[in-house]
Amino acid sequence: MIKVTRLNGMEYYLNPHQIESLEVRPDTTFQMLSGKIIVVKETVTEVIDRIVEYRRRIGGFKNEE
């Protein structure tokens, strides 16, 4: 799970395995596999860095090599 912040300041954790796409509109906007749209304060770069760190912690890259 990665920590993100909604525009109202509420922090919560998001399952990165459920992300279908990530856009800049100009806010960072997630399209989830469920069809739900989530807008967060973090930049796309921050979100991608958190996903990479999360996958590194769980050993996600070992299965892709």
Give a structural overview.
With 65 residues, the chain is α+β, with helices and mostly antiparallel strands. The chain has one helix spanning 44-58, and strands spanning 2-5, 11-14, 19-24, 28-32, 37-40. Helix content is 23%, strand content 35%. It has a 3-stranded antiparallel beta sheet, with no helix packed on it. A two-stranded antiparallel ribbon has the order 1-2.
The percent of residues in helical segments reads: 10-25%
**Order of neighbouring strands in the sheet with most strands:** 3-4-5
Question: How many helices?
Answer: 1
What's the rounded overall pLDDT mean?
92
Task: Spell out the blueprint of helices and strands.
Blueprint: E1 2-5, E2 11-14, E3 19-24, E4 28-32, E5 37-40, H1 44-58
Antiparallel strand pairs: 1-2, 3-4, 4-5
Question: In brief, what are we looking at here?
Answer:
With about 60 residues, the chain is an alpha+beta fold. The chain has one helix at about 45-60, and strands spanning about 1-5, 10-15, 20-25, 30, 35-40.
How would you describe this structure in keywords?
three-stranded antiparallel β-sheet; 65 residues; alpha+beta
